[in-house]
Specification:
Elements: H1 2-53, E1 57-59, E2 62-64, E3 68-72, E4 78-82, E5 88-90, H2 93-101, E6 108-109, E7 125-126, H3 135-140, E8 145-149, H4 153-164, E9 168-172, H5 177-191, H6 194-214, E10 222-228, E11 233-236, H7 241-248, E12 252-253, H8 269-275, E13 279-284, H9 289-301, H10 310-313, E14 317-319, H11 322-325, H12 333-344, H13 346-349
Parallel strand pairs: 5-6, 5-8, 6-7, 8-9, 10-12, 10-13, 13-14
Antiparallel strand pairs: 1-2, 2-3, 3-4, 10-11
Region (Disordered): 27-55
Family: Belongs to the bacterial solute-binding protein 8 family.
Pfam family, one: Peripla_BP_2
Length: 350
């Protein structure tokens, strides 16, 4: 009997030990589940953060990576620019205006134009004019980025020299509204100012789109664009900055009918009289306003037939302000479109 009791007690002890051990393991396993899930979630969060910081943005032909920006320049060459350059020289004031508004700073610039000063860049070293910048002065500043225009041959010829000296170069050829959007995307990508990109695009694009949408589509006014300097008088078709604006506002440029590219900019009084435009717009280039107006009078207004044109008789012969219609309007594009729209359609826009 005693042996039986002892055996029974031993069996009970073994069973109890097994039960407690099992419960303990169960609790340990349950306690481990939240920790594992938490660690797994943390890993997921870290992965998402990394993916966000490495996100590639591609808009208007500009690709923005983590450390650099890639685009095709005015030479049709793919170029990679490192973000946040520290020593920038800009050789064209219209681009300096955009660079400044995109959060960029410069150590070198060309002489400012009276109509388009960039206040924040006034203390930068002057390296000449847009048409005659000094290569020596630019190199002496030891820039890590130079912004040029392909509109001046002298600047285009400097680009290989900069590249040979391991200086990054942005060569641009902005003529149209889409070019402006691309340049803003490029510059804000380099300066890492996404907030300014959103501001530019939202304000400018929205403003321009609203004006274009509002412009009457059934008037079909004929227009002429004269481009005047102290040396010559030429014309511009729709493949120009002002020409594009007028086309977007539903006008017909009489110079678009010229099929020979060699004659696309030739001023022909005979053709103008034949087409008899409803509006004549004049762009002027040069600092000597008196000489420019003398050239216009001599080559255009002194012709007896000029006074017979509809646009002249009705007071629709207009000299455009330089700040919006010779220099790039940039952030003021909507204002430039509206200015033309008010002239063309006063009953709608005034």
């Amino acid at each position: 009997m005693k042996k039986s009791r002892i055996i029974s007690l031993l069996l009970i002890i073994v069973m109890l030990t097994t039960i407690f051990t099992g419960c303990s393991k169960g609790k340990e396993t349950e306690n481990n589940i939240p920790n594992s899930a938490s660690e797994s979630n943390n890993e997921d969060v870290k992965t998402d953060d990394n993916e966000e910081s490495n996100e590639v943005v591609s808009e208007y032909g500009v690709t923005i990576n983590k450390d650099n920006v890639v685009f095709t320049d005015a030479r049709e060459k793919e170029v990679t620019i490192k973000k946040n350059p520290q020593r920038v020289v800009c050789l064209y004031n219209s681009y300096l205006d955009i660079w400044d508004s995109c959060g960029g700073e410069v150590i070198g610039r060309v002489e400012e134009s009276e109509e388009k000063p960039v206040e924040r860049a006034m203390s930068a070293e002057v390296v000449g004019t847009s048409g005659a910048p000094s290569l020596e002065k630019v190199l002496a500043l030891e820039p890590d980025l130079v912004i040029v225009t392909n509109g001046f041959k002298v600047q285009a010829e400097m680009v290989p020299v900069f590249e040979q000296n391991n200086i990054q170069v942005i060569s641009l050829g902005n003529d149209y509204l889409e070019d402006y959007y691309k340049t803003v995307r490029l510059f804000t990508g380099i300066t890492e100012r996404e907030d300014l990109y959103e501001k530019h695009i939202n304000e400018v694009k929205k403003g321009v789109d609203e004006i274009i949408e509002k412009a009457p589509k059934d008037k079909n006014y004929k227009t002429l664009i004269i481009f005047a300097s102290s040396k010559s008088i030429t014309v511009r078709n729709s493949d120009s900055m002002v020409g594009e604006m007028l086309k977007d506002l539903n006008t017909i440029n009489i110079s678009d009918t010229e099929t020979d590219p060699a004659n696309a900019r030739v001023f022909s009084m005979e053709k103008i009289i034949q087409e008899d435009p409803d509006f004549i717009f004049v762009q002027t280039m040069g600092s000597d306003k008196e000489k420019i107006m003398e050239r216009i009078k001599q080559d255009v207004e002194d012709n007896p037939a000029w006074a017979s044109l509809t646009a002249v008789k009705e007071g629709k012969y207009i000299v455009l302000p330089k700040d919006l219609y010779l220099y790039k309007p940039n952030a003021r594009y909507a204002e430039a479109y509206e200015g033309l729209a008010k002239i063309l359609y006063p009953e709608v826009f005034n």
